[in-house]
Amino acid sequence: MTGNRRPTIKTVAARAGVGRTTVSRVVNGSDLVSADARARVLAAIKELNYVPNSVARGLVTNRTDAVALVIPESESRLGSEPFFAALIRGVSGVLAESRTQLQLMLVRDQAERDQLTESVATRRVDGVLLVSVHSEDRLPGMLEEMGLPTVLAGRRDAGERLSYVNSDNVGGAAAAVRHLLEGGRRRIATVSGPLDMDVGRSRLAGWRSAHEEAEVPADELLVETGDFTEEGGRRAMRLLLERAPDLDAVFAASDLMAVGALAELRRRGRRVPGDVAVVGFEDSVLARHTDPPLTTVRQPVEELGRTMARILTDITRHGAPRQQVTLPTELVVRESS
Amino acid sequence: MTGNRRPTIKTVAARAGVGRTTVSRVVNGSDLVSADARARVLAAIKELNYVPNSVARGLVTNRTDAVALVIPESESRLGSEPFFAALIRGVSGVLAESRTQLQLMLVRDQAERDQLTESVATRRVDGVLLVSVHSEDRLPGMLEEMGLPTVLAGRRDAGERLSYVNSDNVGGAAAAVRHLLEGGRRRIATVSGPLDMDVGRSRLAGWRSAHEEAEVPADELLVETGDFTEEGGRRAMRLLLERAPDLDAVFAASDLMAVGALAELRRRGRRVPGDVAVVGFEDSVLARHTDPPLTTVRQPVEELGRTMARILTDITRHGAPRQQVTLPTELVVRESS
DNA sequence: AAGACTCGTGGGAGCGCGCCCATCTGTCAA
DNA sequence: TTGACAGATGGGCGCGCTCCCACGAGTCTT
Question: Where is the HTH lacI-type domain (chains A, B) (predicted)?
């Protein structure tokens, strides 16, 4: 059984008594084959246990049936992980349907990021999914310039021209703040995300717009920037408490930062939600396990992954044009508010 | 810039005024090239922005410089995710060094699993990393039979013949139970993992051996099987409490099951660690965020991933023989015990 | 009955690359 | 001067596949 090489299309053709082309047609589902020939070929394939060599096929078709998912390692650290796990799950599900391979690329530093362009240039993938792009990021542009279809998770800014799938960050943040206002809170602080990312700016904009809408002045003293990590949330909370001891609520732009804020509040002896209400963003697994369970804005991460994969597939397989999609978010009220 | 096709080795050869072979030699680092020719080729490569087509190369070398990481989707659900995230991080780090691509394959069901063999047979990868294999799993054997180097995370049973990297499950579990015994506990229950997995059996064996060693009888009534999920941990805890209301400690074979156990204990009004001490296994991010913070056995997951990747690379690149490695575990005492 | 189609079929060419082997150049010893 | 040899170089070939196009056999039309 072992020892002799894998059968090629030639072997199968000989076995079935037909030409290579006919075998190729059967394998690729062309209907320009007689029932008789098709049957013989299929039999031969089964007997020989033939599997087409996709590398050889890729050489001539100039396609690989694989896409890359690029994730910056620095931001996948810590508990941001649930986000990536859910994303991968969504992406993977859709890709499996279209028999497309998923190349995972964790990018640690700039060096690896540069290398990425090259690695992608060797035509190992038909398209790229890009996560957490910063505003000034040049990678997406470079990829498009190379003619490689690209879909972003989130956008670089409001004027994004590439394909992307985004959550309704403004709407979600506004809903969170509105909820706090309705609960009678008036000094609502926010731990924002990095302001060089659209997701950070948008969630902050939602915080502002909800205040505006309710005609409650938004005090800029109540804004502190975090970096989406637990430690960043803790640090921001500390600064906020020092600056505005009278705050009665916090909207953190991520669950993980909310966890940090909770820890700092506890350390300072502030009760949640008694003294200070806390709301996060994402509804990761974390949110159900904090003490108290965290009110948060649910972001459909898995659906986001699915949509990204679907758009990319549409582009690579069917030549579809660029698409920009925004998915709705939803407030999940638990006990921290 | 766009429009004209990517340069091939031929283009570069013409540009540099040398033959294709010389370009190939330069690209692949052969030293049978004069300094002069090498310089000209390198210049041409830079000018034309040439990147070798790895698909074409793969066709002739019969290598892809890619490996697959296969993860059963069912078990990556819920909060088991930290494990996979850390594993991926470790694997990815080592692979990046050897410029190897990582194909991620989430396998949802048996159908996809069958398809996997085929997909792997198309020679898109040089080797396979396999996670959470059950004892009767035939996939590893099939892969090896196809001549595809395979490294397992964990082993199928004590007599495993394939390459694997394992944690010291017996030792870790024994250390956990020993710790509980030293704390004066005498009725130590355990929520085991699935017994059709070596990891489940081994951690249970550790529970037994620590009892034996301390000459404390191990009551089989205190054993209940879980499935590594939070809900499974909750269910097992419920059954244990009904069967043995006098238990004063629980060793859960995973952090996630420990979380479930904690929830059930709280629901029943048992205080932790006052009434019942709880110890988990893995030391995932979860463990630091439970209430109270969870004592657990640390498993070096990222190192496990690194080691797997290293072994696989040694095999595919240098023809190294099979290797079987067991990594040490370490008890991390927090407040739940 | 002969042209005009349609359908099924298969061989040749070529995708971009690495490797084998023949060729060429220069150097050194006899 | 000649032969031997090492170093440098390039062309042919083939990896396994898809696609183009030519060809034969049957069917339909006028």
Answer: 7-61
Interface test with A, best of B6, B55, B282 (most A CBs within 10 A): B55
pLDDT digits (tens, 9 = 90+) for B57-74: 999 999 999 999 998 876
Tell me which fold the domain A169-298 belongs to.
Answer: Rossmann fold (3.40.50)
- The dotted CATH code for B66-167+302-328 is 3.40.50.2300
Q: Which of B260, B293, B262, B243 has the alpha carbon at shortest distance from B78? A: B260
Asked if A102's CB is within 8 angstroms of B92's CB, the reply is: no
Residue B286 C-alpha from the chain's centroid: 18
To the nearest 10 degrees (0 to 180), the angle between helices B301-318 and B81-97 is: 40
Q: What are phi and psi of A331, to 5 degrees?
A: -80, 130
- Give domain A9-52's CATH superfamily: lambda repressor-like DNA-binding domains (1.10.260.40)
Extents of the domains making up chain A: 9-52, 66-167+302-327, 169-298
What one-character DSSP code corresponds to residue A51? -
State, as a whole number of angstroms, the distance between the CA of A66 and the C1' of D17. 18
Q: Which residue's CA shows the smallest distance to C1' of D11?
A: B19
- Band (pLDDT 50/70/90 cuts) for residue A14 is very high
Confirm if A293 and A273 have CB atoms less than 8 A apart: no
Rounded to a whole number, what is the distance in Å from the CA of B219 to chain A's nearest CA?
32
Model confidence over A134-189: pLDDT tens digits? 888 888 988 888 889 999 999 999 999 999 999 999 999 999 999 999 999 999 99
pLDDT for A79: 46
Of A190, A325, A179, nearest to A252 (Cα)? A190
- Report how far residue A48's alpha carbon sits from residue A46's, in angstroms, rounded to the nearest whole number: 6
Residues 34-53 of A with CB within 7 A of strand C:
34, 36-38
Rounded CA separation B129/B307 (Å): 11
- Longest Cα pair distance anywhere in chain A, in angstroms? 86
Tokens 């003293």 correspond to what residue?
A: A221
* DSSP code, position B19: -
Helix, strand and coil percent figures for chain B, each rounded to 5: 50, 15, 35
Distance from CA of B56 to the nearest CA of A (A): 6
- Classify domain A66-167+302-327 at the CATH topology level: Rossmann fold (3.40.50)
Assess whether the region B9-52 and the region B66-167+302-328 belong to the same CATH fold. Answer: no
